[in-house]
Design a protein that fits this description.
The protein is mostly helical and 137 residues long. Helices cover 79% and strands 0% of the residues. It contains 4 helices and no strands. Helix 2 runs antiparallel to helix 3 and helix 3 packs across helix 4.
Length: 137
Amino acid sequence: MAFNQPSQLYNWTFRRVMWATLILVFVVLGFWLIYRFHQVVFILFIAIVLGTVIRPLVNWLHRRGLSQRMAVILVFFLLLALFISFVMLLFPLIVEQGTTIAAAVPGYYHGLREWMVNYPNQGIVRLGGFLRRRCRA
């Protein structure tokens, strides 16, 4: 039984080890930078998507005789008006649900405390003892 000579794949020279280490360091550094500056990357991504979305409308307005700068301003004002109208439609619903939740929280708190005090596990009973008796329910 004869052993084959090692192939070039396993023949690691100093130069290959150095390049592999540098590539690994740069990949790790790139991921760390993306993690560290994820908000900037997200904002850049949103800017690219927004620019790509409004470009056809801006080009269409430019072909109709409006300057590109005015077309961009008009499109952004239209988007702002849509956003404000959307918020104005949702605001009453959000306020109504917020007041409903705020009214229901004391009952949930009372129910949680009663469950913890009557639980068979003594650790949970002691935790329930730390909760104050503030609820009126």
